[in-house]
Design goal:
The chain has about 525 residues and is an alpha/beta fold. It is built from 19 helices and 19 strands. It is elongated and about 90 Å long. It starts with 5 loop residues before the first strand and ends in a 37-residue tail after the last helix.
Length: about 525
């Protein structure tokens, strides 16, 4: 392996009881953006996604579909792989929790916790929600509308049904980790982001932790507890361990493990924060393993103002919106529209606005107009610039200085701001182009026209390189039009040391960002 710095990013692994929807595509897209950015920025990246295939919920869904659990998992897991391919996700591995390598990792982690005295056998009596695959305390429950035995039905705080469970169970001594967790939340750089989510999980811990039931005896579809296979591991221990499995655990001497563990970012939705920012670091601390450097919890999408749910029939199918609006357009919209970390609303109109203003008008027109002028008026080749004016220098300096600014946003997962920053330069470049009026210079001062077109093309070269993480196909088309060789598209080719070569012949340009017309 190279001596480059490493970067390991993970998506949650998706439940196979559901077909892929926009929420799944969103989490993985955010990771894809960050992974591609880091690769271009010179890192050795490992980007992991996959499917979460065990547990009572999956067992029930398989039965409802008239399939064995593994047949059912094979089928749905495949849909998630297809989604990844379709969305142009650049994951390096795709893990399934039904794989042998994963069972081995789970059992090794369990044994480690047991050896360290953090696991004991007792009896669990309490509330469990199969839909959430989570245990809830009596004080967390809410009352539903429906009546049961003359009383209002009890529900999980998420609105999911709960059932009373009484069975023998292994417990993890979560209560022993309060102080360590609170110290973990204070670490700098921040281990849980955004700040509001960190406060949420911190106050939960401050409220006191109970030991966690970590095995069940009432179903079979999962990883057996080593030494007592009457017990199946709690599905969240199993699921969370996937991040370690893919990094080679339990082979801690392997190159991959040494290089990539601890992970840099676990990207998750806000609904599964507690599992990732509380249980998971506690399990790892108990096993004497470093937890991931950061958990980032993003927000949720609604559809035209409404909660997305199967029962409302308003689930957004990523395959369908990509068919309608275009892949890079959807990728751009999802990452640009909503401050990353906040909830957001999906609306057709805001999608169309982004496509037509940011992409077709701003970047698309600038590239198409300037490259067409070069093709027509400069003998089809990149012109040579003359002496640079203050306006030329200003826009070049702006684009030369973009990377550190964009990187600073990416480092804190402020994805929308990284795009906003790039588009500020696109907009200023449009202002420059409009003010310089190269079309008017054609007859009055062709040398000056050549300079303006050259400067604009150079801005487009750098923008083309910078937008590869968000719109890989469109960026490639732009860079192809400028005849930039494949090996000159890394971020080390940003800045002024790699200006466009004058004299390079270009082809007749074709628009990369079409307008969306209803
Ligand atoms: N299997 C668990 C994760 C285990 S990770 C060790 C799980 N799977 S899930 O399929 O239900 O959800 C996966 C992700 O999709 C979560 O991060 C969740 O937040 C995200 N989303 C599901 N619906 C969503 C929206 N409507 N909007 C944004 N993201 C949403 O949880």
């Amino acid at each position: 392996m190279s001596g480059k710095q490493s970067f390991y990013i993970t998506t949650p692994i998706y439940y196979v009881n559901d077909i892929p929807h926009i929420g799944h595509a969103y989490t993985t897209l955010a990771c894809d953006y960050l992974a591609r950015f880091k690769r271009l920025d010179g890192y050795d990246v490992m980007f992991l996604t996959g499917t979460d295939e065990h547990g009572q919920k999956v067992e029930k869904s398989a039965a409802a579909a008239g399939k064995t659990p593994i047949e059912f998992c094979d089928q749905v897991s495949q849909r998630f792989r297809e989604l990844a391919k379709f969305m142009n996700f650049s994951n390096d591995d795709f893990i399934r929790t039904t794989e042998e390598r994963h069972k081995r990792a789970c059992q090794a982690l369990w044994k480690r916790l047991e050896e360290n005295g953090h696991i004991y056998l007792d009896k669990y009596a309490g509330w469990y929600s199969v839909r959430d695959e989570a245990f809830y305390g009596e004080n967390e429950l809410i009352e539903g509308e429906a009546q049961k035995n003359g009383e209002r039905e009890k529900l999980a705080p998420t609105g999911a049904p709960v059932e009373w469970v009484e069975e023998e169970s292994y417990f993890f001594k979560l209560s022993a980790f309060e102080e360590k967790l609170l110290a973990f939340y204070e670490e700098i750089p921040p281990t849980v982001m955004p700040q509001s989510r960190k406060n949420e999980v911190k106050s939960f811990v401050e409220g006191g932790l109970r030991d966690l039931s970590v095995s069940r005896t009432s179903f079979k579809w999962g990883v057996p507890v080593p030494g007592n296979d009457k017990h199946i591991m709690y599905v969240w221990i199993d699921a969370l361990t996937n991040y370690m499995t893919a990094a080679g655990f339990p082979d801690e001497d392997s190159e991959i493990y040494k290089k990539f563990w601890p992970a840099d970012i676990h990207m998750v939705g806000k609904d599964i924060l507690r599992f990732h920012a509380l249980y998971w670091p506690a399990f790892l601390m108990g096993a004497g393993i470093d937890p991931a450097k950061r958990v980032f919890a993003h927000g949720w999408w609604t559809n035209e103002g409404q909660k997305i749910s199967k029962s409302l029939g308003n689930v957004i199918d990523p395959f369908q919106i990509v068919e309608e609006f275009g892949l890079d357009q959807v990728r751009y919209f999802l990452m640009r529209e909503v401050p990353f970390g906040n909830d957001g609303d999906f609306s057709r109109q805001s999608m169309i606005n982004r496509i037509n203003s940011d992409l077709a008008n701003d970047l698309g027109n600038l590239a198409q107009r300037s490259l067409s002028m070069i093709f027509k008026n400069c003998d089809g080749a990149m012109p040579s610039p003359g002496a640079l004016s203050d306006a030329d220098n200003a826009i070049l300096a702006q684009v030369d200085g973009l990377l550190p600014e964009v990187r600073a946003h990416v480092d804190v997962q402020s994805i929308h701001k990284s795009l906003e920053t790039i588009w500020k330069t696109v907009s200023d470049a449009n202002g420059y182009f409009a003010l310089q009026e190269p079309w008017a210079l054609k007859n009055t001062d062709p040398d000056r026209m050549a300079t303006v077109l050259y400067v604009t093309a150079e801005v487009i070269r750098q923008i083309g390189i910078l937008i590869q993480p968000i719109m890989p196909d469109s960026a490639a088309k732009l860079l192809d039009q400028l005849k930039i060789p494949e090996d000159e598209r890394g971020f080390d080719h940003l800045c002024g040391d790699h200006r466009l070569a004058s004299g390079t012949a270009i082809d007749k340009p074709e628009g990369v960002f079409p307008r969306f017309v209803e």
